[in-house]
Design brief:
By secondary structure, the protein is an all-alpha fold. It has 24 helices and no strands. The longest helix has 34 residues. It is globular, with a radius of gyration of 23 Å.
C-alpha cells in the first residue's frame, strides 16, 4: 500500500487523464479504417457497402454507446468510487478494441464499437470529475484540461495510424490485408497501460470522506498540497459538504443545483452545435470542396491533429490564469468569425476566385481550430467537472456528458443531410457555406448564454462553489438549510 502512495502527482494526473487518449483514438480512427474494410472483403474482411446505413451506423455506434456509458457509469461512481470505475472503463476499452479488431461480421463490429462507446462515455463522465477532485483550486483548470489534451493526442495518433497502416503507408508491409484490424486493435495497448497504471491511482479524497475514510483522504490531500494546515482545512470543508446524504434526480433538478445544471446543459449542447466535430471530422471534405487534392486533404488532417495538440497544450498552461467565462466568450467570438470567414471563402470559390478562396478557407479553418482547442474544447469539460455539488457530482457530470454526446450524435448525423439539402446544383461548397453561417450565428448566441447563465469557477475550491449555490438558493427562499429538503 505504501508503494501506491509513492506515485508522483505528475503520473497520477497522466494516468487519470489517459482515458482521454483512448476517447480520442477510438472516435478518430474509424474514419480511416472504414476506407479499407470493404477493400479487404475479398481477403476475409468485411463487406459493408460504401455510403450505406450500415457504414454510417458503424461510425455512429460509438456515439450511441457513449450516451449509454455516460448515463450508467457516472452515477455509479458516486457509490463505488472514481478509481474503480476508471479501472472498469479501461477493461471495457480493451475488450471493445480487440472485439473490433477480430470482428468477423458487421454485427460483431457494431457490438464492439458500442462497447467502445460505453467506455468513451464513461471516460467523459468520470475523468473531469476525478481530476477536479484531486487538483488544488489554483491548478484545477490546467489539470482538468489534460483530459482534452489527451483527447486531441488520441485523435492525432489515430490520424497517424490511418496514414502509416494504409495500403500505401510506411508500415503496411507489416500488417498486409489486415490493415484496418490493426488500426482498430492498437487501442488495446493504451487501454492495458491505463489499467495497470490505474492500480496505483489514489481514490478521490471527496469520495473517501463520503465513505468515512478521513485518514486516507487527508493523506491524498497532503500529496497534492504539502501544506499540512491547508490540507486539514480542505478536509474540514469537504467533511461539511460530505455530511449531506447522496442525492438523486430530485436534487439534480432541484433549485439549488439548477443554475449549474442549466449551465452544464447549455455548454454541452453549444460546444457541439457550434460545429466543432463537423469541422474536425469533415476537414478533408472541406479542403476538397475548397479545391485541394485528396492527398493534400488527407495529409492536412495529420497536421490539423498536431496543431490541435499544440494549442491544447498551450491551453493547459493558461487555463488557471484567465477566467473561464472570458475564455469561452473570446473562443465563441473567434470561432464564429472563422466560420463566417470560411463561408465567405466558399462564396469566393463560387465566384471564380479559386486560389484566393482556397487559401482563405485554410486560414479560416486553422483559426477556428485554434480557438476551439484553446477554449471550448477543454473549458466545457473543466467547468462541468467542477461545478456540481458533491452529493450529486457523479450524477451531474454524467448528465452533462449524456447531453453532450446526444448533441454530438444529432449534429454529426444531420451534417451530411443538411449538406445535401443546402447544396446548390449539387455543389457541396454551397452547402458548406450555408451550414457554416448557421454554426457561426450559434457561436454568437453562445456569447449571450455565457453572460447570462454561466458561473465563474476559476480559483475557487469545489466546496466554496457549492456553498455559493446554497447561499443563493437560501436567499431565493428555496433552501431551508437542510440539504435534504431542497424545495422543487
Amino acid at each position: 500500500m505504501a508503494k501506491k502512495k509513492g506515485i508522483s502527482t505528475g503520473l497520477i494526473y497522466f494516468f487519470g487523464a489517459l482515458g482521454g487518449l483512448l476517447f480520442g483514438y477510438d472516435t478518430g480512427v474509424i474514419s480511416g479504417a472504414m476506407l479499407f474494410i470493404n477493400k479487404s472483403a475479398a481477403n476475409g474482411g468485411l463487406s459493408i457497402q460504401a455510403g450505406s446505413f450500415e457504414e454510417g451506423f458503424v461510425t455512429a455506434s460509438v456515439l450511441l454507446g457513449a450516451v449509454l456509458g455516460a448515463a450508467i457509469i457516472g452515477p455509479m461512481s458516486d457509490k463505488l468510487g472514481r478509481k474503480k470505475l476508471l479501472l472498469l472503463a479501461s477493461i471495457i476499452f480493451f475488450v471493445g478494441a480487440l472485439g473490433s479488431a477480430f470482428a468477423n461480421g458487421y454485427e460483431m463490429l457494431v457490438i464492439s464499437r458500442v462497447i467502445l462507446g460505453v467506455a468513451v462515455g464513461a471516460a467523459s463522465a468520470l475523468i473531469p470529475t476525478y481530476l477536479s477532485e484531486l487538483a488544488p483550486a489554483d491548478k484545477r483548470g490546467g489539470v482538468g484540461t489534460l483530459f482534452q489534451l489527451m483527447i486531441m493526442t488520441g485523435i492525432f495518433f489515430a490520424y497517424i495510424s490511418n496514414e502509416v497502416l494504409a495500403p500505401k503507408g510506411a508500415l503496411h508491409f507489416l500488417v498486409g490485408m489486415h490493415d484496418w484490424r490493426w488500426m482498430l486493435g492498437l487501442a488495446a495497448i493504451p487501454a492495458a497501460i491505463l489499467f495497470f497504471g490505474g492500480l496505483y491511482l489514489p481514490e478521490s479524497p471527496r469520495f473517501l470522506v463520503r465513505k468515512g475514510d478521513d485518514a486516507t483522504a487527508l493523506s491524498v490531500l497532503k500529496q497534492f498540497n504539502p501544506d499540512a494546515k491547508l490540507a486539514n482545512e480542505e478536509l474540514h470543508d469537504i467533511k461539511l459538504q460530505a455530511s449531506i446524504k447522496s442525492g438523486g434526480f430530485q436534487e439534480l433538478f432541484g433549485h439549488m443545483a439548477r443554475p449549474v445544471l442549466i449551465m452544464a446543459m447549455g455548454l454541452a449542447i453549444l460546444q457541439q452545435v457550434m460545429g466543432c466535430n463537423t469541422v474536425l471530422y469533415y476537414a478533408p471534405k472541406i479542403f476538397i470542396s475548397a479545391g485541394f487534392s485528396e492527398h493534400f486533404a488527407l495529409l492536412s488532417h495529420i497536421f490539423i491533429g498536431l496543431f490541435n495538440v499544440i494549442v491544447t497544450f498551450i491551453a493547459v498552461k493558461i487555463m488557471d490564469k484567465i477566467d473561464r467565462k472570458k475564455m469561452l466568450t473570446w473562443g465563441a467570438i473567434g470561432m464564429g468569425s472563422a466560420l463566417l470567414l470560411m463561408s465567405a471563402a466558399m462564396l469566393l470559390l463560387r465566384a471564380g476566385n479559386g486560389n484566393l478562396g482556397s487559401w482563405v478557407c485554410v486560414i479560416a479553418l486553422t483559426i477556428y481550430i485554434a480557438f476551439f482547442s484553446a477554449t471550448w474544447g477543454p473549458v466545457m469539460w473543466v467547468m462541468i467537472g467542477e461545478s456540481f455539488p458533491l452529493n450529486i457530482r457523479g450524477l451531474g457530470n454524467s448528465f452533462g456528458a449524456v447531453v453532450n454526446w446526444t448533441a454530438n450524435f444529432a449534429v454529426s448525423q444531420s451534417f451530411p443531410m443538411l449538406l445535401h439539402a443546402f447544396a446548390g446544383n449539387g455543389k457541396e461548397g454551397d452547402g458548406i457555406a450555408k451550414l457554416f453561417i448557421i454554426y457561426g450565428v450559434l457561436c454568437f448566441v453562445a456569447i449571450w448564454f455565457i453572460a447570462k447563465f454561466t458561473v465563474e469557477t476559476r480559483g475557487k475550491t469545489l466546496e466554496s462553489l457549492e456553498a455559493d449555490l446554497r447561499t443563493k438558493a437560501h436567499a431565493a427562499g428555496y433552501y431551508d438549510g437542510d440539504a435534504t429538503t431542497d424545495i422543487l
